[in-house]
Amino acid sequence: MGKRFYGCAYWHQPCGFSKLADHLDEVRELQMLVFKTDTAIAQLEMEKELLEKKVKELKEKKVVLQEQVEGLSIENNETYLATCTTRADKRVLAASTLSWVFFLLLL
């Protein structure tokens, strides 16, 4: 496609006037640049919305996981305390049994 130009309005009586319409090409280039920029901005806004949605979902998931970890921590502590109590009970039972055996040996 060639360049556009202005010519004499009285083409049937040529006067030799002609001028390239470079400014039209510049306007078209600027319009294309504005279009591409607007398109890029729209795409970035869509990506931003998707990322914000993902961040929100991940924050919600984080809260749920923290609650689960706290629950597991409490269960773990309860199990540990139960184990310690069981061990202590076993030690007391073993000590009392040994004391009775020792007492019987003395008699």
Please describe what this structure looks like.
- The longest helix has 85 residues, at 22-106.
- The relative contact order is 0.04.
- This protein is mainly alpha-helical.
- The chain has a two-stranded antiparallel ribbon with strand order 1-2.
- The protein starts with a strand and ends with a helix.
- It has one domain (23-106).
- Helices cover 79% and strands 6% of the residues.
- The mean pLDDT is 78.
- The chain is built from one helix and two strands, in the order ββα.
Q: Strand pairing plus helix content: what structural class? A: mainly alpha
H/I helix tally: 1
Shape: rod-shaped
Mean pLDDT metric:
78
Number of strands: 2
The biggest sheet, with number of strands, parallel, antiparallel or mixed sense and barrel status, is: 2 strands, antiparallel
Radius of gyration: 44 Å
Q: SSE order in H/E notation? A: EEH
User: Uncertain segments of ≥5 residues (pLDDT<50)?
Assistant: none
Fraction of residues in β-strands: 5-15%
Characteristic key phrases:
single chain, 107 residues, mainly alpha, two-stranded antiparallel sheet, 1 helix, 6% strand
Summarize the structure.
This protein has 107 residues and is mainly α.
Question: Helices, strands, pairings?
Answer:
Elements: E1 5-7, E2 18-20, H1 22-106
Antiparallel strand pairs: 1-2
